[in-house]
Amino acid sequence: MTEPHPAFDRRMLEALICPQTHTTLEYDAERQELLSKAAGLAFPIRNGIPVMLVDEARKLD
User: Fold this and answer.
1) Band of the pLDDT at 53, cuts 50, 70, 90?
2) Cross-referenced HAMAP family, in alphabetical order (predicted)?
3) Residue 25 and residue 48: Cα distance in Å, rounded?
4) Which of 2, 39, 43, 52 could cross-link 34 (Cys pair, CB 3.0–4.6 Å)?
5) How confident is the model over 33-40, as a mean pLDDT?
6) Is residue 33 part of a domain?
7) Domains of the chain: total
8) CATH no. for residue 43?
9) For residue 1, what pLDDT is reported?
10) Residue 49, strand partner residues
11) Residue 2 domain-assigned (yes or no)
């Protein structure tokens, strides 16, 4: 069985920070997003590449 989308390299989490708050991010594998709880934003991962633009982020509930 193949993955429905290209895999996100979890090692990137060590290097990526929230562009708004400069805090660490959490990986949500199910939704393919990187979460910034401090900013209340979820950054999408498209084709295995995180889109770290605040304008592209979804607001967390």
Assistant:
1) very high
2) UPF0434
3) 16
4) 43
5) 98
6) yes
7) 1
8) 2.20.25.10
9) 53
10) 46
11) no
